[in-house]
Amino acid sequence: MAQQVTVTEHILLHQKMVPGATGQFTRLFNELVLSAKIISRAVNKAGLVDVLGFTGEVNVQGEEVKKLDEYANRILIHRLARSGVLCAMASEENADIIEVPESLPRGEYIIIFDPLDGSSNIDVNVNIGTIFSIFKRRSDPDAALMSGDVLQKGSEQVAAGYVLYGSSTMLVFTCGDGVHGFTHDPSVGEFILSHPNIRIPEQGKIYSVNEGYERYWDRQTKKALAYFKSPKNALRKPYSGRYIGSLVADFHRNLLYGGIFMYPADLRDPKKPTGKLRLTCECNPMAFLVEQAGGMATDGLNRILDIEPEHLHQRVPFFCGSLNDVRMVQEIFEAESRRKKKK
Ligand code: P6P
Questions:
Q1: CB neighbours (10 Å) of residue 284?
Q2: What CATH number does residue 338 fall under?
Q3: Which of 93, 213, 248, 327 could lock onto 73 through a cystine, CB 3.0 to 4.6 A?
Q4: Nearest CA to ligand 1 atom 3
Q5: For position 218, what pLDDT does the model report?
Q6: Which atom of ligand 1 is nearest to the CA of 128?
Q7: One domain for residues 215 and 115
Q8: Is residue 291 part of a domain?
Q9: Tell me, what's the pLDDT at 73?
């Protein structure tokens, strides 16, 4: 029988390899894993228990909040605060930084999460996911928390990952030492290592974008899509178009099969002037993962992980996936920049 490595064993092994590790990260990650199990149970029952449908509220993004969104957000805030190692949290569902109650012990970690991304797909049983990004505090732990502790560049992440609630529940994450995937075995209630050292194919064969918005894109994005649909691309045949409309599901498929995910700037909608996806709770974690798996992530011109966040819910154009494909997009964007400068 193949040796079954649980995520807890994997994290403890990682802790042993980190000089001066105190076990704080392990405690945080254990609460994240427990939250994933609790949310997975609710997601899998969503069709049976009355957790479908809208709460009637609207979140900071201006999006209708589904009951499962709210439930997942509550579970994560409750469990992660009790890890005793956080100095701050932030959620895609909350306008401001979430304080850790004074009554609870605190620590040096910061976690930013999207509790249930793709929630518009909940009622139709399409895969959804939880995305997380973990930093260490940079300011003096005895001083007041600084906004710069939460608004750090993606390159400062100490860990990032997602939980994919699909045909099975998977936890995929990196601590900066490669990307590893764990599949939940409900019969024992453990996440078991199923995809060690995930590497994204250097050359993709899939593009993922909502082509319904093509008329609202900039010129360079339209050129990029035309490249992937042309028989004159690196594949010498058109890429396959695959778009689920759930970032975690689209990202996960491209991570394993190879391909590029694009959410470009939308020139029409004032809410999406620079794209729809949020830098801190969606793009940064996915960018850290894809780079650790050998891929690339850009806003068209800049490495996602180098972007200095200006505010918690900042949106950026997002191109992420196989190295050759994202490089091609960046070349198209750079050529367009040069063309505009010549004007
Ligand atoms: P659109 C889900 O709401 C989400 O934030 C991502 O999971 C997904 O990739 C994107 O929005 C889909 O957006 O505009 O194509 O429906």
A1: 28
A2: 3.40.190.80
A3: 93
A4: 118
A5: 94
A6: 7
A7: no
A8: yes
A9: 96
Domain boundary among 195, 221, 253: 195
CA 24 – CA 84 distance, rounded (Å): 8
Q: In whole angstroms, what is the distance from residue 339 CA to residue 333 CA?
A: 10
For ligand 1, is residue 247 a contact (CB within 6 Å)? yes
Whether 86 contacts 110, CB under 8 Å: yes
The alpha carbon of 246 and the centre of ligand 1 are apart by a number of angstroms equal to 6
Kindly give the number of the ligand 1 atom that is closest to the alpha carbon of 261. 9
Give CA–CA dist 148/342, Å, rounded.
37
Domain span at residue 295 reads 206-342
Residues of the chain predicted below pLDDT 50: none
Q: Do residues 182 and 323 both lie within one domain?
A: no
CB 212 within 8 A of CB 199: no
CA distance 89 to 77: 8
The finding on whether 121 has its CB within 6 A of some atom of ligand 1 is no
CA distances from 151 to 14, 79, 98, 281 (A): 26, 22, 13, 11
- 149 and 83, same structural domain? yes
Average pLDDT for the chain: 92
Q: Containing H/E element for 55?
A: strand 54-58
255 shares its domain with 164: no
Residue 24: which residues within 8 A CB-CB, separation 6 or more?
Answer: 85, 107, 108, 109
Please identify, among 195, 229, 247, the residue that sits at the C-terminal boundary of a domain: 195
Q: Which residue type sits at 58? A: V
35 three-state secondary structure:
helix
Q: Which amino acid is at 129?
A: G
Instruction: Give the pLDDT of residue 273.
Output: 75
**From the CB of 120, is ligand 1 less than 6 Å away?**
yes
Burial class (CB in 10 A: 0-12, 13-18, 19+), 202: middle
Are residues 171 and 225 both part of a single domain? Answer: no
